[in-house]
Design a protein that fits this description.
Length: 413
């Protein structure tokens, strides 16, 4: 399995030419794949996310940092977020086949390289006093705190940069129809958690405060937990919660976790992934600020992680012809996976025709147990159509390798 790191870069500027230059710098880095770019002009903040191998993700982030240093001057920053620098933060998270320590090493490599290349101070994300100092107080904060990398000097045009890791990083804004002070009270409750940071980041025209949340581990801190905590304490102050917004991109599992919570809470019967996504978008109010488009917001969808293999994506005619062709692969295993999936699909069809019918109302509890199992098993079977063919092809390659002295084939295929 390919080793991949997910990186989030936060820049304190949203000029179009800068957004395009940073995007281009990341896209032109070999093996780096841009996931999402979000430019919030009201906050004067750009968030770019991308994935890459351990080697290329450092290069991609460095290329973005070079563009930022050339283009951004913090002396002209107008946004309300009070960032620590032109390149406010760079966060690395494991995405595929990467451990936490490896991710930490990659963050340190980037910090060292950027500090040497740009001659700027770098502090550790989420544990430095510099982080909450505010830009006006940053010179004194830098003077009082040794950076993790780079010179202990304040550069008015740059400031400082926060670099670190998280198990799974997500920026999530929730809108409340209240004052900044009311929103700050809610933030105090949210900040009791170690896997979440929250603050009132913006007071919009019209009296809506925005609670900006940084989720540091989506596996322990769900979107639903954040939203329900905000709703509870907003209700205690008699203020309304009016939707939310994911800044940048989001892991599929984070949405599924929230969907499962609301499905159980409301005793709703949903099976298909797309149904669950549509449901949780509504329950979290993710369309309130701008349309939440799963194909461009969910990391796995952008990267095509769940993309079907060539056999699974082929037409019936093409699949039948490939089975009947003068090759040993695809063969019986691929056919068995498809036939089994088709058989289960017939059972699923019967289940759906039974579910919700007054005539078969007494069967509904059993059907609600059976249908999710059938759906999950079909989803597990379909990729095996390609997996079996690939495994057999690898076996044929191994058979052609020279034998070792003890008579065994090399295990390289």
């Amino acid at each position: 399995m390919e080793r991949l790191i997910y990186c989030v870069v936060v820049v304190s500027d949203t000029r179009q030419e800068l957004v395009e230059a940073v995007t281009e710098a990341i896209c032109h880095t070999e093996s780096c794949i841009l996931v999402h770019v979000h430019a919030d002009k009201g906050a004067d903040r750009m968030v770019a996310s991308f994935v890459g191998s351990p080697e290329t993700v450092v290069e991609g982030a460095l290329n973005a940092a070079v563009i930022v240093q050339r283009s951004v001057d913090m002396r002209y920053h107008k946004g309300p977020l009070n960032p620590v620098g032109a390149l406010h933060s760079v966060i690395f998270t494991p995405f595929s086949n990467i451990g936490a320590q490896q991710c930490e090493d990659i963050a340190n490599t980037f910090s060292h390289n950027m500090a040497d290349l740009l001659e700027v101070p770098v502090y550790q994300f989420n544990c430095s006093p510099v982080e909450d100092a505010g830009y006006d107080n940053l010179p004194a904060a830098i003077d009082a705190n040794e950076p993790a990398f780079g010179p202990k000097e304040f550069h008015p045009a740059w400031g400082a940069t926060l670099v670190g890791t998280a198990r799974s990083y997500l920026m999530f804004n929730v809108n409340v129809m209240g004052t900044r002070d009311q929103a700050n009270k809610i933030c105090k409750h949210l900040n009791n958690r170690t896997d979440l940071r929250a603050r009132t980041v913006l007071l919009e025209d019209g009296g809506n405060a925005v609670i900006g949340c940084e989720i540091l581990d989506c596996s322990t801190c769900g979107l639903n937990e954040v939203m329900e905590t905000i709703r509870t304490h907003a209700n205690q102050q008699s203020i309304a919660v009016v939707g939310s917004h994911v800044v940048g991109s989001i892991p599929l599992q984070a949405l599924m976790k929230a969907a499962d919570f609301y499905i159980e809470q409301e005793n709703v019967f949903l099976v298909k992934e797309q149904q669950k996504i549509r449901f949780v978008i509504d329950r979290l109010g993710l369309n309130s600020v701008s349309e939440f488009k799963p194909d461009s917001k969910i990391i796995e969808y952008v990267l095509g992680v769940n993309r079907h293999g060539p056999l699974q994506s082929s037409t019936i005619q093409q699949f039948v012809e490939s089975i009947g062709s003068r090759t040993s692969s695809p063969g019986g295993g691929s056919v068995a996976a498809l036939v089994t999936a088709l058989g289960l699909s017939l059972g699923q069809m019967t289940g759906w025709m039974t579910y919700g019918s007054k005539k078969h109302e007494q069967c509904e509890p059993a059907i609600k147990t059976i249908l999710p199992t059938l759906h999950k098993t079909i989803d597990q079977l379909l990729p095996l159509i390609d997996a079996d063919a690939m495994a057999f092809n690898n076996y044929l390659v191994a058979q052609k390798l020279p034998a070792s002295p003890d008579g065994d084939r090399k295990q390289e295929a």
